Amino acid sequence: MVIENLDDPPNSRLFVVTSRSITEDELRDRFSDFGDIQGVWVVKDKQTKESKGIAYVKFARSSQACLAMEEMHGKVLMDGTKPIKVFIAQSRSSATHRDVEDEQLTRIFVMIPKSFSEEDLKNTFKEYGDIEYCVIIKNKFTGESKGLGYVRYYKPSEAALAIELCDKAYRAILAEPRTKASSTEEYSGAAARSDYVGGADSTNHYTFSMADPGSFPVVDYRSGDFTRCLMMSTRAGLTQEQIFALFDIIPGMEYCELQRDSYGMSKGHALIRYSNLGSAVYAKEKLNGFEYPPGNRLVVNFIDDGEDRSSPVGRMATQFVAAQMMAAVWNGPSTSQVVKPSFSSVSTVPRIQTDVNLPPLKKLAPPDSKAKERLFVVFSPSPLPPDVLEDVFCRFGSLIEVHLVPGRKVGYMKYADKQCADEAMAALHGRVVNGVKMKVMLADPPREESHKRPRTY
Fold it and tell me: What are the backbone dihedrals phi and psi of residue 78, each rounded to the nearest 5 degrees, phi first?
């Protein structure tokens, strides 16, 4: 069977890191449970014709490939072999050399009737899977729907299924990673996608002046310059889930989104919107300057949400809410109906934050030990400090040293024992530590005659 376009439909091809002993027939047999397989290719060495331990599996539908990825990643295909790694393969025309991240596969962009509420949008698309959130793009000044929206699912297969099965009138497609233009589109209502909306406004109505993290100005609550919308900036690599959990402590949060660049990397900023002015004022007061994780001070500022507060009534309402909230901050919850949240659970955050069940700390191997195995680690959005990496990777035993490549988001972990390195790779690949996602792979042996960057698989 000859496939004319391996990227049709998009995201229907898997990249599989497996054992060199696994054959195409064995891969086809195990992956056929998830849908119609159009092709399986094991990559072989040109000289020896032996498998390199990587393969591609092409499905007829994107949802089938995504489901296979979700179910098969980390599974053992044959006794005595290592767990396989499964990713959505990048497009053959892609200019990048990175695997497609799950986060890029869970958000869809749809056209909807202008009468739709967020509840209508959720009810329409919930049949395809569990929805994390829905957002309707609205006109910044009038508050009216622009007939466009986003739906974020928890799983890539659910988002792919929604695109495949929903009514074609919704023109559902996978949302593009955030760029300056798409940030403008989502937050200010200016649609960057001309195929959906003509005459797109290219001006970003939110111009963020980032404050010096060392200075936190006191807001004059009589000026009426605070709003329901907040912009948080951080130097540490926090995840969407961490930011959501932090700001959700204050009741009334209706929107929280980490901003990303065109490569899907965190910009270190997040937009948070509350349903009422009081909650936003309270969140700003409590979280601006708060250290999370310890040593990383958050900067939280009000940003323009497009609401008119220039009228006497608007000013009075703003001042009234601010007065109530400030009373709650300084005098406790007895003077307000708003319950003062407890931050003790956040302020006692351990030095290492991860969902991995880490073994106890172990001593480093002697510095002059011979390296039997090297691990190559890719960090997103930015590298972890060497002391944190040493703390995490030494727990599997025989770690000699940690080396970060200057100016790059990659590093090497040298081990004196191969089994210890394999255990670290199996436990930490794809995991998040202190808000940083790590891809942990075996590094190729160093070649003295070559100055090329080591391959990442």
Answer: -140, 145
How many CB atoms neighbour CB 259 within 10 A?
A: 21
Within 354-414, residue ranges assigned H as helices are 386-393
CB 363 within 8 A of CB 390: no
Q: Mapping DSSP to helix (H, G, I), strand (E, B) and coil, where does residue 119 land?
A: helix
Q: C-alpha angle with apex 149: 147 to 155, nearest 5 degrees?
A: 155
Q: Tokens 């100016």 correspond to what residue?
A: 407
Q: Is 157 exposed, middle or buried (0-12, 13-18, 19+ CB in 10 A)?
A: buried
288-341: pLDDT as tens digits: 888 888 778 899 988 866 565 555 555 555 555 555 555 554 444 433 344 444
Two tokens at 356? 């991995």
Q: For residue 153, report the phi and psi dihedrals to the nearest 5 degrees.
A: -95, 165
The Cα 230–Cα 47 span in angstroms is 58
The helix or strand, by DSSP H or E, that contains position 432, with its residue range, turns out to be strand 432-433
Please answer whether residues 72 and 83 qualify as being in contact, where contact means their C-beta atoms are separated by less than 8 angstroms.
Answer: no
For residues 361 and 395, what is the distance between their CA atoms, to the nearest angstrom? 5
Alpha-carbon span 160 to 61, nearest angstrom: 9
Distance (Å, whole) CA 260 – CA 379: 15
In which element (H, E) is residue 328 found? helix 312-331
Q: What is residue 413's three-state secondary structure?
A: strand
**CA end-to-end span of the chain:** 28
pTM of the model: 0.42
Does an H or E element contain 420, and which?
A: helix 418-428
- Residue-averaged pLDDT of the chain: 77
Question: Which uninterrupted H or E stretch holds 278?
Answer: helix 277-287
Name the token pair of 106: 């869970």
Q: Rounded CA gap, 257 and 244, in Å?
A: 8
